[in-house]
Write a structure and sequence with these properties.
By secondary structure, this protein is α+β, with helices and mostly antiparallel strands. The protein has helices spanning 2-10, 23-33, 39-47, 72-79, 125-132, and strands spanning 51-54, 66-69, 87-92, 98-102, 107-112, 117-122.
């Protein structure tokens, strides 16, 4: 259930939740990328916004210990860097790796800073959250 999953992620937040996104800001992201954001992503941004999740993605990915979800204003400013590619940057780690939603399907990709390439991480935002709390 989505509520349980969000609560489990929230229990792993290692710092206070930052400013949450408004519907208008999320609508602005959708307008810039030309399509809808996944409902669970919208819900996460409205409820938690910018925050740091003390969790690991597990085997096969070389990422920092904490996943740092961006403030919506940072998402909007970083969209300009990937405009026209259907990518929404939404989190990073302390090593410079950046997480993206690939629209319209909502797959989660990781830009590996070491190898300078995009790698698939999860089929959707829900799968990413499940992976972060190890409930695959």
């Amino acid at each position: 259930m989505e509520s349980d999953l969000l609560l489990e992620v929230a229990s792993r937040l290692s710092m206070d939740v930052g400013r949450c996104a408004s519907d208008a800001e999320l609508d602005a992201i959708e307008a810039k990328v030309g399509g809808p954001l996944p409902p669970l992503f919208r819900r996460f941004q409205r409820g938690y916004g910018a925050c740091r999740c003390n969790c690991m993605l597990g085997e096969g990915l070389f990422v920092g210990k904490d996943v740092i979800f961006m403030d919506v204003s940072e998402i909007l400013s970083r969209l300009e860097l990937v405009e026209g590619h259907g990518l929404v940057p939404f989190a990073d780690d302390l090593w410079g790796n950046v997480f993206y939603l690939a629209l319209p399907l909502g797959r989660v990709l990781l830009f590996d800073d070491e190898e300078a390439e995009l790698k698939p991480v999860a089929e959707d935002f829900r799968s990413l959250l499940q992976r972060l709390v190890r409930r695959e």
